[in-house]
Specification:
The complex is a heterodimer of chains A (about 350) and B (about 350).
Chain A: E1 4-11, E2 24-31, E3 36-40, H1 47-55, E4 62-67, E5 70-71, E6 82-85, H2 97-107, H3 112-125, H4 141-154, E7 160-164, H5 172-189, E8 193-197, H6 200-206, E9 209-214, E10 217-222, H7 224-229, H8 234-239, E11 246-253, E12 256-259, E13 262-265, E14 280-284, E15 289-292, E16 300-309, E17 313-320, E18 323-330, E19 340-344, E20 350-353, E21 356-360
Helix pairs in contact in A: 2-3, 2-4
Chain B: E1 2-12, E2 15-26, E3 30-34, H1 41-49, E4 56-61, E5 64-65, E6 76-79, H2 91-101, H3 106-119, H4 135-149, E7 153-157, H5 165-180, E8 186-191, H6 194-200, E9 203-208, E10 211-217, H7 218-223, H8 228-233, E11 240-246, E12 250-253, E13 257-260, E14 271-277, E15 282-299, E16 302-309, E17 312-319, E18 329-334, E19 340-342, E20 348-350
Classes of the chains: A alpha+beta (about 350), B alpha+beta (about 350).
């Protein structure tokens, strides 16, 4: 497997225009060898453009793509040594399951004994062992996609495996099994996998690291926990997690920040180069908001609007000086009636300037 | 005033799609049909709409039998999973279409279209063509068309299932406000997700293999599932179920785990039971039951930790995002005071206090 470097990469679908509009704004990033990555973002964010640049279907307008140090920017897909798994199954209907899985290896002239060993290993991992000698023709859509996945995993000489939303057509019950198997495959073989999806549950469950994109820009690359706990961009705070992170307009003050007329002690930000136009926001996840009946220890007064229970926890809607705030409270924790005050967990209070994280307290 | 069904039954190729379904759906109520794929949700909605005739049983609206009333006279509208609209008509004309067919005056049509578009936040987009709308906007347009018709019966068949999760979150909130304003109509919403029913605080109908297993207020069904099937279906992740025995002093689960007999089991006879516990009532501890992690599923802001040991599987619901890898060792604690007990025939024998 390979380390994939993207060096000052950018792409525009418009050619020749003086003012080009980027589908992918300039950025650099290195995909480390043996890691599972997810490329996550809403439709139109540029993730498919980036995937196509890595697979060689699109030649970037700027920058370089290197596989293990080798410049492949101008190489076509066939010469890049990558495996791809698409949204819909791509299989050879006239072959058996075994022949389908063996095909990429036979094309490379591997010894029959090695092919057998490798195919059996992958079939075992995907629970396809009992079906190896069946024709692929009459399999269910799920089983066909399983074979597509297997063909992606069967070669151990590829630079990387690129997945384009491969579990979209899969039945929800089987999805769980496949997520587990992909995760095990990665642990066992140390594959470099790049997994494109718009589904945050898929990305967060499968990947060691997630690259979040929005409007053609990479807004953050981090572990699922980092994205949840320290969103570098307010979009990540909104897009990751449910309900979204609370974002309250605020101003900087003497020893902290002001939200409406309420003062909150906050010391976690360094000197922020701010102009009059800078928009500040205080961010806190609903999980890190607690409620009490007293104003002690810097509790801020709020108005309780609504409580909704989903069994395991309740979502409490609150009004803090005209701004809406949500708290997630476990089912066994009482919610005060009458005067309610909120507190935000230490280390979980975040400050944003023009949508970028500038401090944590 | 209500819609009632009595012993509604429909078989297709010998398979029961509806099996003796009797229910009462009150006006002004929000009714959520919860069940897995192929449980009979869509069959029930189609029967209520008059699209499929039942083999047996009847449907009555405010006491009047509906059997001979043709679909087009039934005052019913339906919103589907797929966004159904007229691609050659603007948003405005899409919403206006059924109203014009009913012969409303242009002034009346205009008032109703604008009102419905306002309710679903599409007012600024009335002149657009459907192809220029996002998936969420298209589904809102379909909803606006149904709302404008102002029918007695509004049927929604998994309307959010094809949208991405942020849009689902947003539309779910909007639905609550929309439906709170319609006190004369009967709204029936089908979904596979129990959390939607809980969030809507709706009257719930739990379906399985064409049968109606239980109905009642969502919180009540969650706290007192009538049997093991309801316990599994009406909990996300599904309730953990384990076989075991109860004796004078303790509970023995899977021949391996011993717990003191909790107070709410006092009135139960000793013997064999299926014990159940919601995933949120299991926790990680330093000294508990050693188990192997199969997968940490991260869903929104929750981690569903799938663990196993000797062929016994459990799911834990942990708040927040946690990184565990398959094969990791964890120690699990079962909160005995939160256990459910189901008798040998699967019916609920004892439940913890809500």
């Amino acid at each position: 497997m390979a380390r994939i470097e993207l060096d000052n990469l950018a792409h525009s679908y418009q050619t020749g225009a003086a003012q080009r509009e980027y589908a992918l704004h300039p950025f650099s990033h290195t995909w480390e060898d043996g890691q599972t990555y997810a490329l996550l973002g809403p439709s139109g964010c540029g993730k498919t453009t980036l995937l196509n640049i890595m697979s060689g279907l699109v030649r970037p307008s700027e920058g370089t793509v290197r596989f293990n140090g080798l410049d492949v920017t101008a190489l076509p897909t066939a010469r890049r040594n990558i495996a791809q798994v698409f949204q819909f199954p791509v299989i050879y209907r006239t072959m058996t399951v075994f022949e389908n899985l063996a095909f990429p290896l036979r094309c490379r002239g591997l010894a029959e004994q090695d092919i057998r060993t490798r195919v059996n290993e992958v079939a075992d991992l995907l629970n396809l062992g009992s079906q190896l000698h069946r024709s692929a023709l009459h399999l269910t859509a799920d089983a066909k996609q399983l074979i597509s996945l297997g063909r992606g995993l069967v070669r151990n000489d590829v630079a990387a495996i690129l997945f384009d939303e491969p579990l979209t057509v899969i039945d929800p019950q089987l999805k769980f099994e496949l997520r587990r198997k992909l995760k095990e495959a990665n642990q066992r073989y140390c594959l470099t996998m790049i997994y494109v999806t718009h589904d945050q549950a898929e990305a967060m469950t499968l990947a060691n690291k997630v690259m979040v994109m929005n409007h053609g820009r990479v807004v953050q690359v981090g572990t699922p926990q980092e994205l949840f706990e320290q969103p570098q961009d307010s979009f990540v705070g909104y897009f990751i997690g449910s309900p979204a992170m609370n974002m309250l307009e605020c101003r900087l003050s003497e020893d902290g920040i002001r939200i409406g007329n309420q003062q909150l002690r906050f010391t976690g930000h360094k000197q922020v180069a701010a102009s009059e136009k800078t928009r500040f926001a205080f961010g806190v996840r609903p999980e890190y908001v607690t409620l009490s009946a007293s104003a002690n220890d810097g509790g801020l007064p709020v108005r309780l609007i609504d409580v909704k229970s989903v069994g395991a926890f309740r979502i409490v809607a609150l009004d803090l000086d005209g701004q809406r705030l949500r708290a997630k409270i476990a089912a066994d924790v009482p919610i005060p009636s009458g005067g309610v005050f909120v507190r935000f967990a230490e280390g979980r209070r975040l400050l944003y300037a023009d949508d970028r994280l500038v401090g944590c307290d | 005033m209500a819609l009632t069904t009595s012993n509604l039954t429909r078989h297709v190729d010998g398979v029961p799609h509806l099996d003796n379904v009797s229910c009462t759906l009150k006006r002004g109520g929000f009714h959520v049909v919860v069940g897995q794929t192929l449980s009979g949700k869509t069959s029930l909605l189609r029967a209520l709409a008059g699209l499929d005739a039942p083999d047996a049983g009847s449907i009555a609206l405010d006491g009047r039998d509906q059997h001979r009333v043709p679909v087009w006279k039934r005052n019913v509208s339906m919103v589907y999973q797929q966004f159904i609209n007229y691609p050659h008509l603007s948003v405005y004309d899409n919403i206006a279409f059924p109203l014009r067919r009913r012969g409303m005056t242009a002034v009346e049509v205009d008032r109703k279209v604008r009102q419905a578009a306002h309710m679903v936040a599409l007012a600024p987009l009335l002149e657009r063509m459907p192809t220029a709308l996002s998936g969420g906007q298209q589904q809102r347009m379909a909803l606006a068309r149904s709302l404008a018709k102002d029918d007695d019966l509004l049927l929604l068949d998994e309307p959010l299932v094809n949208l991405d999760y942020k849009l689902r979150e947003q539309l779910r909130d909007e639905f609550l406000n929309l439906f709170a304003q319609r006190d004369h109509a009967i709204m029936v919403y089908a979904t596979t997700e129990p959390n939607e029913a809980l969030l809507f605080d709706a009257n719930v109908l739990v379906m399985h293999q064409g049968r109606l297993l239980q109905s009642g207020p969502a919180q009540q069904v969650y706290a007192n599932p009538a049997n093991v099937d309801v316990a599994r279906i009406f909990s996300d992740p599904p309730m953990n179920l384990m076989s075991g025995t109860l004796d004078a002093g303790e509970i023995l689960i899977n021949h391996a785990v011993r717990l003191p007999r909790p107070g709410h089991f006092n009135r139960l006879q000793n013997g064999n039971y299926t014990f159940g516990i919601h995933p949120c009532d299991l926790s990680l501890t330093s000294r508990g039951i050693g188990m192997r992690v199969d997968l940490a599923e991260i869903n929104g802001s929750e981690t569903y930790l799938h663990v196993s040991r000797d062929n016994a599987d459990l799911v834990l619901h942990l708040a927040g995002v946690h990184g565990y890898n398959p094969g990791d060792h964890v120690e699990t604690a079962i909160n005995g005071s939160r256990l459910f007990a189901f008798a040998a025939d699967g019916t609920l024998a004892a439940a913890p206090a809500p």
